[in-house]
Amino acid sequence: LPFPAPVPHLPFPPWGRYELRVIVWNTDEVILEDDDYFTGEKSSDIFVRGWLKGQQEDKQDTDVHYHSLTGEGNFNWRYIFPFDYLMAEEKIVISKKESMFSWDETEYKIPARLTLQVWDADHFSADDFLGTWRVQSVPQ
């Protein structure tokens, strides 16, 4: 039997729908923001917030690691960030209305950036921001 003819190389589509999957396992050396009322011991209730640039309204939070005394938090949290990616320009494509009175959506092309922030969860007041990390490119 002869071998079948080779399959021609098919080019990638100009843009495609992708998912960025991120796993948060641990945090370390997180600032201890809270003081215990009775013992004066420093602690933090740690959680991590993440989003892709241009999609801040779709931010995602891990669960909370309560009462960390060492600045270490343990998670097993998975983020999934869906996005449209334009390969030729290496940018994310986002469609948004410019204002609430706009009829049509406007397309924006922005660089891909993942932002991860560490927060201290509070019950009776606003959560405390502790730090941020922006991922602009991942080594291959």
UniProtKB/TrEMBL annotation:
Compartment list: Membrane
Keywords: Membrane, Repeat, Transmembrane, Transmembrane helix
One Gene Ontology term from the biological process aspect of the record: synaptic vesicle priming
Pfam families linked to this entry: C2
Segments crossing the lipid bilayer: none
Membrane topology, from the record: Single-pass membrane protein
Gene Ontology molecular function terms on file: AP-2 adaptor complex binding; calcium ion binding
Keyword Membrane assigned: yes
Boundaries of every C2 domain copy: 1-140
InterPro entries: C2_dom (IPR000008), C2_domain_sf (IPR035892), C2F_Ferlin (IPR037725), Ferlin (IPR037721)
Gene Ontology cellular component terms for the protein in this record: presynaptic active zone membrane; synaptic vesicle membrane
Protein name according to UniProt: C2 domain-containing protein
The organism of origin for this protein: Chloebia gouldiae (Gouldian finch)
